[in-house]
Structures are given as C-alpha cells and as structure tokens.
Amino acid sequence: MTTTPTDRGVGPLLRAWREQRRVSQLELALRADSSARHISFIETGRSRPSEDMVLRLAEHLEVPVRERNALLLAAGYAPRYSQTPLDDPAMDAVRAGMERLIQGYEPYPAIVVDAMYNVQAANRGILMLLEDIPEQLLAPPLNAMRLTLHPEGLAPRIRNLREWRGHLLAQMERQIALHRSEPLRQLYEEVAAYPVPEEDPSEEPAEPVPYFALPMLIEHEGRTLSFISSISTFNTPMDVTVAELAIETLLPADPATVKYLQSLMP
User: Fold this and answer.
1) SS3 at position 52
2) What span, in angstroms and rounded, lies between the C-alpha atoms of 251 and 230?
3) Alpha-carbon distances of 24 from 53, 68, 222, rounded to whole Å
4) Residue 155 sits in a domain of what CATH number?
5) What are the pLDDT digits (tens) for 208-259?
6) Of 44, 61, 163, 189, which is most buried by a Cβ count within 10 Å?
7) Domain count, the chain
8) How far is Cα 187 from Cα 263, in angstroms, rounded to an integer?
C-alpha cells in the first residue's frame, strides 16, 4: 500500500521499508554511515532524523521517489521531489527525447508507460501490433497490461500466452513489492483474472528454439513474429513523473521477424 505520513512520525515508515527490504538495522547503519543504535532511535521516535538522513536511508532502502516525499513529510520536512505532468511545458525536452527515441527504433515496436502501465507514447511498430483490436480497449487511458492480456486484446494472438502472461504477472508482482501501490495491485488482480484458453492436447508442441531470453511469440498477418523485451528507466530522477516512466523496446528475436518488419517500414 502506498506510504502516507502518519502522526507517529517517520520512524514506523522507515522501519516498514527496512523490514520489507529484509535489511537489519546494523546493515542499514553500515550502508548509511550511521550506527544501529541511531537507526533504532529513529525507528522508535526517540531521535528525529535530519533531512539528509531521511534521504540517505531512503536511498539505501531503494524507496521509490514518490514515497520519499511521504517520508520527508512524516519527518517534518518539505517534499524534495516535484511531480510535473508529462504534458507540462517544462517536460517538453523529456517528452521530445522519448518520442525521438521510440521513433528512431522503428520499424521495431517501442512504447513508453507510467507506473500504472498506462501508455504515454508509442511508435508505429506498436500500432502495427494493435491492428484490429476492439475500440473499447483502445479508449484512453490506454493500458499496456490490459491490451496484452485481455481476451479481446493481444492475448489470442500470443502463441506462448501462458509463459508470457506468467512473465508479465511476475513483473507486476515485483513492482507491487517495490512501490506498495494499491492501484497497481487492483490492476494486477484485474488482469490476473482474465480467462486463459485451455491448451489443446491434440496440438503437437513446437520445436524448441534457442532464445537467450523469453520471447513473445505473436501472430500478425499469418506470420509468427518473435520479440525479446527490454525496459529502460531514467537514472537519478528528481521528479516523480520522470521516475515512474519506463521505455519498453521489443527487439526482434529472429531474422525472419527482422526481415518482415523492415519490409513494412523501409
């Protein structure tokens, strides 16, 4: 669940993050150049940490940027990180940079999503995969997880759906553990409940192909395309919005996929 400031101060919040990360007071003290005694005093409220100490502990506990603001507020300090809407003029450079990046990746698919997997930008490679998807699934806010796993979305076209679905759900579980976000958990419960087609026992298993990472095998125009996913984020973000953006690129996993995509988009 998302962290909120409490009347008890920052101590219980820091202890909760430390326990979730499975770090002892001594280990955290060593990382933060402090002492286990001081960490204990902070967690029990006997000592009020400095603003720098709150940020240092949050850094070593890998607390998401959004939640660092909550820790600062609970400790009596002003939030350090802004949350600028992506369509704000101040974000023009970030937005333009991401657009150039994903457009430059064409003809291969690339997409930008936020912490809730809502699509913020997509290139023509992605739009190609979304051809003939029902309009109700394409209505804003466009959500990448719903589009992929919904039985009227891409799911029927993904030949290794069970494997790919398992990968996506595990990815969401890791994000929930990291961010403790209730809206993200609700999205997870929704998409995890989508029906999965029964396997056809009469269908012969495909010949194994030596991939170096789990591919997404998806049908398009009578062909099976193969992609490996790569996700990039911003280093040392100083804004909540930027911290929660992720750029996913789908790298062709075989020569046939490369040849086909290049034939579509010179």
Assistant:
1) helix
2) 7
3) 17, 20, 55
4) 3.30.450.180
5) 555 678 999 999 999 999 999 999 999 989 999 999 999 999 999 999 999 9
6) 61
7) 2
8) 37
**Angle formed at CA 140 by CA 216 and CA 214, multiple of 5 degrees:** 10
> Measured between alpha carbons, how far is 120 from 20 in angstroms, rounded to an integer?
30
Who's near 86: CB < 8 A, 6+ residues apart? 94, 95, 120, 241, 245
* Total residues found in the chain within this entry: 266
Displacement of CA 254 from its chain's centroid (Å): 26
Residue 57 to residue 36: CA distance in whole angstroms: 12
Token digits of residue 158: 């993904």
Q: What is the DSSP letter of 157?
A: G
Share of the chain above pLDDT 90, in %: 84
Token representation of residue 44: 């029990």
Task: Quickly tell me which residue has 């679905």 as its tokens.
Answer: 165
Q: What would the pLDDT profile of 54-75 be if each residue is shown by its tens digit? A: 999 999 999 999 999 999 999 9
Order of strands, sheet of 246-252, starting from the edge strand that comes earlier in the sequence: 119-122, 110-113, 246-252, 223-232, 216-220
